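Lay summary

Proteins are chains of building blocks that fold into shapes. Our project writes down both the chain and a compact code for its shape. Here are two examples, one after the other.
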Amino acid sequence: MPFTINNADSANNADNTDGAINNADNADNADNTAASAHGKYDSLLLRLASLKGAVLAFSGGVDSSFLLLAACDSGIDPLAVTARHPAVADFEIDMAKKVASELGARHVIIDLPVMDNVDFISNSPDRCFHCKRALIRSLSGLAARDGFTCVIDGTNADDPSDYRPGLKANDDSGIISPLREAGLTKDDIRRLSFEKGLTTWNFPSAPCLATRLPYGEPITVEALKMVDKAESILRNMGFTVLRVRKEKDTARIELPAVDIERAAGVALRGDITAMFREIGFLYVSLDLEGFQSGKMNRAIKGEQGN
């Protein structure tokens, strides 16, 4: 089950025999899960220590922040490198700086010219492969220049189960993914991040802004800026898990089911519409199905409604 901090069911079932048995089972399972995660972390530290030194692809998200902490714990003194380009939201760059500073890690930001890459801006289903390949080439060049032995990234054990063409770039280049090698799942990483005091432990996933455009719709700097501004508006209103999908002139807002009613209420609906229109959207819609990461991939998976 997904990692959570509180178990409300335990309190509700405290006076119920069956509930007490179930809660005991849950506690045993939680203990086993935690022990497994700790064992994987020990394996991760050994693997990292064997690398001697590494350039770490660092976005400042859940996985790469945890990997940076582990790399520092292992004693290899990594260099965290964050790529900046129009498809990366401004707040993510700021967060990467903050996390690296909190961990006392060396950190540099490089500009990645992905908008000059025709294969990327054409926005085909393998878009992420071309971006990741360009990133790996830049990081590999930096590693060779500065005497690092390898490049590592935060791919975890769950990632291969989703459509992620960027993983092919990893496989083709020989980049090392220590979290994946150690069998660390996203749940493991959140659990251990919480235990170790990482502020990123409960961050929502934040794929690049290009994922907000349907495949085949060209990626432009203007389109990416519109999405970034729109999502910033919603975050400033207190929404945390969100996507703004740009489909030509329409903004389609995805929020968790619990937030849909609030966004559609009288207090916010008019403000959201007006501010999105100021950005350049002609139409503003709210996706009644709610938030779902990777929803744009339905177009290539051939999914139909139930």
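And here is the second example, written the same way.
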Amino acid sequence: MQNVAQDNKMKRKLRQKWSLWRSRFYLYRPGRKRKLKWFYSQFIQPGDICFDIGAYLGHHAKVWLEIGAKRVVVLEPNPLLFEEIMDDIGLDGRVIPMQYAAAAESNKSIHLHISSMEPIFSTMAPEAWRALIRKHASIDVEWDQVIEVKTVTLDELIKVYGKPTFVKIDVEGMEHEVLHGLTHAVKALSFKYHTAIPYVWDRCLRILRYLGDYEYNWSFGKSLQLNSTSWLSYDEIYDILDEHTETDPSGEVYARLRQR
């Protein structure tokens, strides 16, 4: 029995190593960093504070530092991914790495469902969401570990580390819960939307409409290409997302406070 357990543990580690190598190959392929810097420079300037909520391997935060951000708060609750972030940028004095999950309430313990083979799909979302992802994903996703993680709100992070110019939220189906922990209108942010779970983007947009006078844009997948040449109103972005079907690609919604 002990040998079987050791073999299973070794197999899991090998699967994790393979998945991380594959992710790095995609995220750091030639030209990708240059495109990230070009894209995020429209939101982030030297001296800004940024929050990366659901940082994965920290590749966005790393680019923001190169743009000149003076402080980047990085949240990643997955222990394996957090270790990778610490090895890469954890010693940079401008980085605040936290193995926490952002949520509507602080100091709670919640379950994080981890996919060893596809850690990008690790999530705190309920079974119904995981079933939808399993149904629509182009790859086979299994959640083979469950751990408890602590939560913190965006409001609490702002109180301690300052108000960010830009916040990225990518937490696999719990984006609305993250925004429920925000009562300050920040200058700009992005959140991931899933066409298979429209109630999440619906709640996100409603929260943002309450927080401030935002205008919106969106992109498909990780294209780093805004789909509209002009920024849109709440009603316009809502109608666009509402027309999507479950089989349409997911993507990112970008919101920025309207300039007066």
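What can we say about the second shape? The chain is about 40% helix and 20% strand.
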